[in-house]
Amino acid sequence: MEDVAEPSIFSRKSLQQPVSRTVSRKERSSAAFVESFLSESGEEENNASFEGLGVAEWLVRTCRELGMKKPTPVQQGCVSQILAGKDVFGLAQTGSGKTAAFALPILQKLAENPYGVYALVLTPTRELAFQISDQFKALGSGMNLRNTVVIGGMDMTAQAKALMQRPHVVIATPGRMRDHLTNDPDIAAVFARTKVVCLSVCLSVNLSAITVSFSLKPHVRRTKLSNGSGSSI
């Protein structure tokens, strides 16, 4: 394994092992459809590893520190696909590690060329927005990650100022994000270089999330992670 030069965003030296494998089951309009269900016993592939999915060594170390020894099925299905630059639809049960399935590749790609706003994550509730933010902070603890939460019920002026600082990752509820894009012409420019939009939603996807996502530039990569039961993630 070769040493990789330390990006300025890192707080410690990182290594990378660029290995990936293809696990998508369908291709629809160049989008990889990944359907991942956990068995009742929670069994995983014995030979699965984060390294085998192409996850960088510094992120593998962080996963181990957080008690994530092996990737779950939804992570096995999504991580390498997102790293390969594909649109992904992930379907899995509650508690199956869906947030890490998109957070890991987002953090890895962000570290290669850190800037903001790199990724926009849309989720239906305030509680989920804060949960996702916490997981990004935990997984991104080895880098100087800047993220912000944009949800209803909080001061829009303060949120607009936070967005203008161009954090690396924005986690938002779609209604509040739509309000910012509609009411403040300067906010759209904040997302001019955004590469990833993740719809972390239930199967009955909120239409305003779709409106926000597809109002962004066509080059933006879209990833949707949903719960197999139809409930919110």
Commentary on this structure:
The chain is α/β, with parallel strands linked by helices and 233 residues long. It has a single domain, classed as 3-Layer(aba) Sandwich (Rossmann fold), CATH 3.40.50. Helices cover 35% and strands 16% of the residues. The protein is built from 8 helices and 8 strands; from the N terminus they run ββααβαβαβαβααβαβ. It has an 8-stranded mixed sheet, with helices on both faces. β1 (26-28) and β2 form a beta hairpin. α3 packs across α4. The longest helix is centred in the middle third of the chain and has 15 residues, at 98-112. The chain is globular, with a radius of gyration of 17 Å. The protein starts with 25 loop residues before the first strand and ends in a 6-residue tail after the last strand. Residues 1-31, 33-44 and 227-233 have low confidence and may be disordered.
Shape: globular
Beta strand %: 15-25%
Helix count equals 8
**SS-derived structural category:** alpha/beta
